[in-house]
Amino acid sequence: MFIQHLGFGLMLYAFSSAGNLGFSSPIVIISLILGIIIVGVFVSRQIRIDNPLLNMRVFANRTFSLSAFSSMVLFIGIVGPALLIPMYIQTGLGLSAILSGLVILPGAVVNAFMSVYTGKIFDKYGLKVLAIPGFILLIIMTILHCFLTVDTPYWYVVVIYAVRMFAVALIIMPLNTIGINALDTKNISHGTAIMNSLRIIAGAIWYCDNDYNLWLSLETNYANHATQQSKTEIMQHATVLGVDAAFAFTTVLLIIGFVLTLMIRTQKR
């Protein structure tokens, strides 16, 4: 247990620190390498012993593996915008903290409402009837988020974010369910723990990319416009550029997740 926590802890520290220190930092490089080595030792041991703490053999199940990594990518598409959009509203558009919080409320309501019906549709028609249109819609909406500016209307951001959350509701539960259901009963707890661990790693990777993009855009804007713009204007433009770049990164990951989901073999219902 200690080895597992140490390895994942070092990896998470490396990814979270890379946003501020950069990937060339010796601290980041050493932490990441040590984390990978320690996790590798942990995984190797878990595969060899008869009663593993975390049964890594579940990755031999194709459906679970594809579902787990696709869910990992999808998690980035959920947690990322939930933090980016309020930041964009408050710093990029210069609106109040109340409005920056309220911008995600309609999306949360839509997601909660759709989750009630998604399970019924999944039970009747299966994964891909929901996941394919869901991923396509999610990718399109994420691409639209890549072109936000300092002049984008508030209502527009509310609408496209709400549609994103509608798409997420079509995917997240069916994708997790089909992965866990593919495992034997004795391995369900192991599969759940592995999925949760992958999501934590996904969150750290996204935070790293987000911090790096915001830092890079701020530095670039300051260098190019420091004598022409006020500090507030520089911060606004830097935030918008950083948010757009982070959404572009998220779009690429979602496309990968979509491809992984298409590779999942499901039985006809």
UniProtKB/TrEMBL annotation:
<feature type="transmembrane region" description="Helical">
    <location>
        <begin position="245"/>
        <end position="264"/>
    </location>
</feature>
<keyword id="KW-0472">Membrane</keyword>
<feature type="transmembrane region" description="Helical">
    <location>
        <begin position="154"/>
        <end position="175"/>
    </location>
</feature>
<feature type="transmembrane region" description="Helical">
    <location>
        <begin position="64"/>
        <end position="89"/>
    </location>
</feature>
<protein>
    <submittedName>
        <fullName>Major facilitator superfamily permease</fullName>
    </submittedName>
</protein>
<dbReference type="InterPro" id="IPR011701">
    <property type="entry name" value="MFS"/>
</dbReference>
<dbReference type="GO" id="GO:0005886">
    <property type="term" value="C:plasma membrane"/>
</dbReference>
<dbReference type="GO" id="GO:0022857">
    <property type="term" value="F:transmembrane transporter activity"/>
</dbReference>
<dbReference type="Pfam" id="PF07690">
    <property type="entry name" value="MFS_1"/>
</dbReference>
<feature type="transmembrane region" description="Helical">
    <location>
        <begin position="95"/>
        <end position="117"/>
    </location>
</feature>
<keyword id="KW-0812">Transmembrane</keyword>
<feature type="transmembrane region" description="Helical">
    <location>
        <begin position="129"/>
        <end position="148"/>
    </location>
</feature>
<keyword id="KW-1133">Transmembrane helix</keyword>
<dbReference type="InterPro" id="IPR036259">
    <property type="entry name" value="MFS_trans_sf"/>
</dbReference>
<feature type="transmembrane region" description="Helical">
    <location>
        <begin position="20"/>
        <end position="43"/>
    </location>
</feature>
